[in-house]
Design a protein that fits this description.
molybdenum ion binding; 16 strands; about 270 residues; four-stranded mixed β-sheet; alpha+beta; catalytic activity; four-stranded antiparallel β-sheet; Fe-S protein; 2 domains; MOCOS_middle
Amino acid sequence: MVQELVAKVAKIIIYPIKSLDGIACDRAAIISPGTLAFDRRWAILDEKGKYVNGKRNPKVHQLRCQFDLATETVTFSDQGETTSLSFHLTTEIDAINRWLSDYFQKPVFLQEKAEGGFPDDTDAYGPTIISTATLETVASWLPGLTLENARSRFRANIEINNVPPFWEDQLFSETGDPINFTIGSVKIQGINPCQRCVVPTRDPNTGETYSKFQRTFTTQRQNTLPAWTHSNRFNHYYRLSVNTRILLSETGKVININDKLSRGLI
């Protein structure tokens, strides 16, 4: 049975530089072609044009950064170090590249894509959605994990509350057709359950691998699949959160904390 639609936005987290720390926001504007402003707007690339991320380089996990989106500045520091340096993300790109190259000990480059950014799923490029209850449940499966640690591992953009664990699985369909819903006044389509990579198995601050993380998660996910979840959408059970697509017509609208999520209103 479909739960009553009482989901509300509890958190909005933007990740300005792909693979690095996020920033919690009270609101997020929608930009063309249907993404959250500043989310994955920048990415670090190597000389071959490949992403420098937690999948390929463990030093990503020790790289701390803080953002000021109003001034488009970033402050970098090495985990455990007391010194930090701040840069403007547009006017000081050469200095950023030098600092990052020194940090990673190889030439790397910060690239910007103001429209669309660098999403993991180029078809479902909207914000990822998860519930607080889901993160709390996943944390309970893995001794030592906290809610905040689970949140940092799975890196969803929009967190909803007032719903049971895995309620967000109702935002993708059995057939693969988009599920229409709104957050506030913003029209969104739920596309598919998000396939996870090796990154959640590692501590987001240290990069230390959690033993049997993927095996434990996969077993628990399969064993606790709610009645409303379409199991045929899982070729494996290492999936969590929902990938979405925001309609181009929604450009300029805003998602706010406490906005209500309602299904079928497009």
